[in-house]
């Protein structure tokens, strides 16, 4: 069959506005993960605590004998604490291979040869992990507030605890951003997603074990900042206006989180390159 030369034709497709190309990476990543049954099962499992809390709120609002389990501001703080285990598993499952898989397949050269900056590439990858982390923290947390108002039939609880909306929102986003940045930095250091997941888990468990040793040696919790999770817990307590669980000043915990994100950004700036540079 003859092929006729049709000459040059101007591109007639849609062009992504400059600065929004990261959305293509994020959309593709979200679709890929949502197509995996194992991951969907993990997401469904992460919502079980929400169901339990919703039943608790319903019982407290409709059964007089169950009034003693009525929710307080601390209830919402405890709920986000319960979600930490799911934050960990989602972070490992989603984040370990976000950059490591691209490095193994030499996809970075392809990505960065397009009209796509390194910042857009990193933000697109980070948005994937953050979206799922917020799906197991911020979304159910806000829905619990809605459930409380609906079952109570009034806005009294919400008016008495107006700080809960910004507290849930701010803490969830800070946690998601800090965890995502740290995991992306680790993912950029290796070509193996399995190795990245092991390193992340090892660092988390080691830091908590180290704090346990230091706490036993000093008899106090002033060195809680050595464990990454403790810093998030400390500033979370402050945001929810509940007594902090550690004696470390919340400003120190915040500084550690900011420093960790800065180090993560530095690592990503050095490792995310179109061409591997060997010193």
Q: Would you write up a description of this structure?
A:
- The protein has 14 helices and no strands.
- With 279 residues, it is an all-alpha fold.
- The longest helix has 26 residues, at 193-218.
- The radius of gyration is 23 Å and the shape is globular.
- The mean pLDDT is 89.
Number of domains: 1
Helix content: 55-70%
Strand content range:
under 5%
Structural class: mainly alpha
What's the total helix number? Answer: 14
Mean pLDDT, to the nearest integer, reads: 89
Tally of extended strands? 0
Strand-and-helix sequence, N→C?
HHHHHHHHHHHHHH
Rg for CA atoms: 23 Å
How does the major sheet shape up?
Answer: none
In short:
With 279 residues, the protein is mainly alpha-helical. Helices cover 69% and strands 0% of the residues. It is globular, with a radius of gyration of 23 Å.
Features:
279 residues, 69% helix, 0% strand
What layout of secondary structure does this protein have?
Blueprint: H1 22-34, H2 37-46, H3 48-62, H4 73-82, H5 84-95, H6 100-104, H7 108-113, H8 118-135, H9 138-152, H10 156-160, H11 164-187, H12 193-218, H13 228-239, H14 250-271
Helix pairs in contact: 1-8, 2-5, 3-9, 5-8, 5-12, 8-11, 9-11, 11-13, 11-14, 13-14
């Amino acid at each position: 069959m003859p092929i006729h030369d049709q000459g040059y034709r101007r591109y007639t497709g849609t062009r992504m506005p400059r600065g929004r190309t990261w959305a293509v990476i994020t959309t593709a990543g979200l679709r890929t993960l949502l197509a995996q049954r194992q991951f969907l099962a993990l997401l469904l499992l992460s919502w079980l605590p929400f169901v339990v809390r919703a039943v608790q709120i319903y019982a407290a609002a409709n059964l007089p004998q169950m009034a003693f389990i009525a929710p307080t501001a601390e209830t919402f703080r405890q709920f986000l604490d319960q979600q930490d285990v799911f934050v960990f598993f989602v972070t490992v499952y989603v984040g370990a291979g976000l950059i490591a898989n691209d490095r193994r397949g030499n996809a970075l050269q392809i990505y960065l040869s397009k009209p796509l900056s390194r910042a857009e590439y990193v933000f697109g990858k980070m948005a994937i992990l953050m979206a799922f982390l917020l799906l197991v923290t911020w979304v159910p947390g806000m829905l619990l507030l809605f459930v409380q108002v609906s079952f109570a039939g009034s806005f009294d609880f919400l008016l008495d605890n107006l700080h809960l909306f910004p507290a849930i929102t701010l803490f969830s986003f800070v946690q998601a951003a800090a965890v995502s940045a740290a995991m992306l930095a680790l993912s950029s250091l290796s070509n193996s997603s399995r190795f990245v997941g092991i390193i992340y888990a090892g660092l988390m468990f080691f830091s908590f074990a180290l704090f346990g040793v230091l706490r036993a040696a000093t008899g106090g919790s002033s060195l809680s900042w050595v464990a990454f999770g403790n810093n998030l817990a400390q500033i979370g307590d402050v945001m929810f206006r509940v007594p902090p669980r550690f004696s470390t000043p919340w400003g120190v915990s915040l500084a550690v989180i900011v420093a960790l994100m800065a180090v993560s950004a530095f690592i990503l700036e050095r490792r995310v390159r179109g061409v591997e540079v060997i010193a």
